[in-house]
Prior knowledge:
Layout: H1 15-24, H2 38-41, H3 47-60, E1 66-75, H4 85-88, E2 94-103, E3 106-108, H5 118-121, E4 124-130, H6 137-153, H7 160-174
Antiparallel strand pairs: 1-2, 1-4, 2-3
Amino acid sequence: xxxxxxxxxxxxxxxxxxxxxxxxxxxxxxxxxxxxxxxxxxxxxxxxxxxxxxxxxxxxxxxxxxxxxxxxxxxxxxxxxxxxxxxxxxxxxxxxxxxxxxxxxxxxxxxxxxxxxxxxxxxxxxxxxxxxxxxxxxxxxxxxxxxxxxxxxxxxxxxxxxxxxxxxxxxxxxxx
Length: 176
């Protein structure tokens, strides 16, 4: 910041405005996945950090009936903007962990301006509710365990490491 330059602040009047504001923040990984307040200061966030930020906001402001959800879905080229990474590797889908909110039982996805939960809804394999602190280690471990079990059950020829590498390349495409 330049000397004497005042920081810019956004005045948010209510819960819905907060949700809309976070949805407009660009998609991108934060410097520290355990500090979801970085969504605001870094002006970017992932599905995990953005939704954990909103769940924390709801908790601190006594907003009822807000759940933080991790859903495992079949990530495909048709339902997620990942290019041809899966086709290039002869894979139809990879199980992906996606965070979102359920507010009064309705799914709310603020991952990006283009986020459309309907695109993945029919590809959901599993959903669980988590607490905000679980978006870091727990979510990653849960996701990796799911993929390892999926590979074993499907008798896949790919190793876990290779699938995770391809998945990471897909996630990178989302940040572009």
